[in-house]
Specification:
Length: about 90
């Protein structure tokens, strides 16, 4: 299962399409290796990242809640997925 982790763009270079290009390249690599979906996590409070991923075709597959996130809601994560099949 291809999983994108720790995608980050320096603050001074944001809003220039760099993150979208990085996502696309990851998707191309996964697809060339025979995978049909790509996954990533984002913190539930990170609305800008959620907007980026949604804009690039990712959808929420699961809202993850564990014991830790019940006590620290800011640590709740969302699992996003995108189908990359032809």
């Amino acid at each position: 299962m291809p999983y994108i982790a720790n995608l980050a763009v320096n603050e001074s270079y944001r809003r220039q399409g760099i993150a979208s290009q990085l996502l696309l390249k990851c998707e191309q690599i996964a697809k060339s290796n025979g995978f049909e979906r790509v996954y990533l996590h984002v913190l539930a409070e990170n609305k800008m990242a959620q907007k980026l991923y949604s804009h690039n075709g990712y959808t929420i597959e699961q809202v993850e809640t564990d014991l830790y996130s019940l006590f620290v809601p800011s640590k709740r994560r969302l699992l996003f997925v995108k189908s990359i099949q032809s």
